[in-house]
Amino acid sequence: MALMIKHVFLDIDGTLIKTDGRLTAQTIKTIRQANFSTTLVSARAPFEMQAMIQALGLTGPQIGFNGGIIFRQGVSEPLAQFPISADSRQQLVEYLQTSFPTVSQSYYTATSWLTTQIDAGIKYEQQVTHQQPTVVTRTALNQQLTIFKVMLIIFDADQMATIKTQLQELQLTDISIKQSGDWYLEITSAQAQKSTGITRIQTMNQLQVNELAAFGDGENDMPMFQAVGVPIAMGNANDFVKQHARYVTRTNDEDGVAYGIARYLANC
């Protein structure tokens, strides 16, 4: 019996795009020709997703900041948003700027990437996303009313573990602290969950769980996998992620999304 998939959710980094950040012509063609709706689900900010949304011809709701914002391209007001609370934002800024001034820190609003200094981590992220940050003072950072994500780029594994532990010891219960890959530590509202965004879109479109599929490569994609009927792991995912998928496609550098759609969802 053919699967009746009506909506597909795609992680971006390590999934939709290649390791060098490119979106391939084959992937674009496959998604544009698919007979289901597509939503990108990413830790990225909406403005960092814009080029991909346009290239893929997507017009429906998209999910940024790991579920911190649900938006439509070209529509100013988000469908839903969950920024970091004012109290937690202020504590985080003061703590990070005071305790870890040399650690690469990025702060994201819905429309801006902010930092207090250009360092190795910021330069690395510029190469990955092809975006340019705005350098601001700590005072200006504290005056930002809406911060959706704080991102630390830490190239030392021991330092990563230390900072993660110390942030958890702050006991800010309304935030989520997650490591993404080897070098990224991302802080969002605890309400910002990929699965929450998927459930909202499912409800908006009156879809059943078995009509949803998702592609992902990381452990932070597990909530997304649990929210859909057909979870598909990338070939570059670790064994834990693969064990929680119905199918395993090729790697992101081998057009794994395009292959997975053709191989597992073509009859939808």
UniProtKB/TrEMBL annotation:
Cell membrane in keyword set: no
InterPro entries referenced in this protein's UniProt entry, alphabetically: Cof, HAD-like_sf, HAD-SF_hydro_IIB, HAD_sf
GO CC list: cytosol
Pfam families: Hydrolase_3
Tree of life domain: Bacteria
GO molecular function, one term: phosphatase activity
UniProt KW keywords: Hydrolase
Keyword S-adenosyl-L-methionine: no
Gene3D superfamilies named among the record's database cross-references: 3.30.1240.10, HAD superfamily/HAD-like
PANTHER family from the UniProt entry: HAD SUPERFAMILY HYDROLASE-LIKE, TYPE 3, PHOSPHOSERINE PHOSPHATASE
Record's protein name: Cof-like hydrolase
Source organism (scientific name): Secundilactobacillus similis DSM 23365 = JCM 2765
